[in-house]
């Protein structure tokens, strides 16, 4: 056999001595050679196990102790991503590779070539894992810095890892078939169309991540809204293929990253960085409660303790914005609402603040309050808007106004029990006012 083909003068000294001893005990030359080969594999396996135990228990323990004593972060991240254990494995495989030709000399090139091939493939895989650990460490260190909120490099890191594994795959194939890696690269050039088809999503994602990063369209921590994908929440992770969004109901939505370039979405970052968050809420007023005010009614209104503090400013605004000599309670209420919001401590005064009329319809007269809250976080923002509405609803009766509520249609039995006069009145009614 080629594997057992041997020249005793070329064998490793210890193996040659063992084989000679076995032949003296009565074994045939072929049997002694086979036994010596098996013994060599057993000794190498034992050596690998011993080195692995020494590396993981002793050497790695010393590395952990040294890392815990340092103040830098990079070594902690390298240890967490298993860079040092893989470095020990690479050194062990390199040492075995250096011993192969010496230990197995005389057993034929086929055996030496097979062991060398396995070790080279193993070292290539471990080397790729080490580079991946380095890239993960770079990403972790970058994300620990404040500027990582402005721009994420996770997509670039993942792309670099893909390139590393592609190169590792080419090297492994070249080792297995015994060809130069450059020959394989030339062959891949002819199959570029197939490669682009297989890695279409990755290529699209990589290009999209570059566009998003260059234009600063999205960052980790941004609140985005994309109804087409069912996403409404905070961006928690950006990678080369997708963007992970934690919705407000604590569900997770994965959005293909190229969809953020090809489709529209809303990013609320500028709102969070601006002076305030906009609010606008409608107040629907029953039209039957709107009336003009006499001087006596106006005096009584301005003397009401609920609005007396802002009454003078309300009248000044009414004179500045009104063109008619007669005053209505609805017009004064609009002026009061605008003055109250303009003086509220939680409303941004440098941005537009107004109470405006909206087109009237069958739902009554609509007054919309419009402004910007200094509080932008969701719970506090809603509390500020609720406080504004609560106050306006509380002072509305002082102006003689009531909210409008559309009446429900009567049921068939109720409709039949009504008299003809009542039916006509019900159909012609404007609605049910609320006190």
Automatic annotation (TrEMBL):
Compositional bias annotation for Polar residues: 414-425
- Gene3D superfamilies according to UniProt: 2.30.30.60
Which residues span the membrane? 30-51, 87-104, 110-135, 156-178, 184-210
List keywords of the entry alphabetically: Membrane, Transmembrane, Transmembrane helix
Chain intervals for the UniProt region annotation (Disordered): 411-435
Per the record, the domain of life is Bacteria
Q: Which residues form the Mechanosensitive ion channel MscS domain?
A: 201-269
Q: Where in the cell is it found?
A: Membrane
Q: What protein name does the entry list?
A: Mechanosensitive ion channel family protein
| Source species of the chain | Alistipes ihumii AP11
């Amino acid at each position: 056999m080629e594997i057992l083909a041997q020249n005793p003068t070329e064998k490793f000294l210890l193996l040659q001595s063992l084989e000679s001893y076995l032949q003296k005990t009565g074994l045939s030359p072929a049997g002694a050679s086979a036994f010596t080969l098996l013994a060599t594999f057993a000794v190498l396996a034992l050596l690998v196990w011993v080195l692995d135990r020494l590396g993981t228990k002793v050497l790695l323990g010393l590395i952990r102790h040294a890392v815990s004593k340092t103040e830098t972060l990079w070594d902690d991240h390298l240890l967490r991503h298993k860079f040092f254990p893989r470095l020990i494995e690479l050194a062990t495989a390199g040492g075995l590779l250096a011993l192969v030709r010496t230990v197995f000399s005389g057993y034929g090139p086929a055996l030496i070539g097979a062991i060398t091939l396995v070790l080279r493939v193993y070292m290539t895989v471990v080397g790729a894992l080490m580079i991946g650990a380095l890239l993960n460490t770079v990403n972790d260190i970058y994300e620990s810095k404040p500027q990582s909120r402005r721009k994420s490099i996770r997509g670039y890191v993942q792309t670099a890892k893909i390139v590393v594994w592609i190169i590792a795959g080419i090297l492994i194939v070249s080792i297995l078939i015994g060809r130069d890696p450059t020959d394989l690269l030339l062959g891949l050039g002819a199959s570029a169309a197939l490669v682009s088809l297989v890695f279409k999503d990755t290529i699209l994602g990589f290009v999209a991540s570059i566009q998003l990063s260059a234009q600063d369209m999205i960052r980790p921590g941004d609140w985005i809204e994309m109804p087409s994908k069912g996403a409404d929440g905070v961006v928690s992770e950006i990678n080369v293929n997708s963007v992970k969004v934690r919705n407000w109901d604590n569900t997770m939505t994965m959005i293909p990253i190229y969809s953020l370039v090809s489709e529209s979405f809303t990013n609320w970052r500028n709102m969070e960085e601006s002076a305030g968050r906009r609010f606008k809420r409608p107040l629907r007023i029953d039209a039957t409660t709107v009336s003009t005010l006499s001087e006596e009614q106006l005096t009584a209104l301005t003397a009401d303790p609920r609005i007396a503090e802002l009454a003078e400013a309300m009248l000044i605004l009414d004179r500045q914005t009104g063109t008619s000599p007669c005053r209505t309670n609805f017009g004064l209420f609009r002026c009061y609402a605008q003055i109250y919001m303009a003086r509220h401590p939680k409303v941004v005064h440098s941005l537009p603040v107004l109470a405006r009329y909206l087109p009237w319809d069958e739902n009554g007269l609509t007054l919309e309050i419009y402004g910007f809250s200094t509080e932008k976080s969701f719970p506090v923002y809603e509390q500020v808007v609720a406080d504004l509405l609560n106050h306006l609803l509380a002072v509305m009766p002082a102006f003689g106004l009531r909210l409008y509520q559309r009446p429900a249609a009567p049921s068939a039995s109720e409709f039949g029990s009504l008299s003809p006069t009542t039916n006509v009145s019900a159909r012609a009614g404007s609605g049910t006012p609320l006190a």
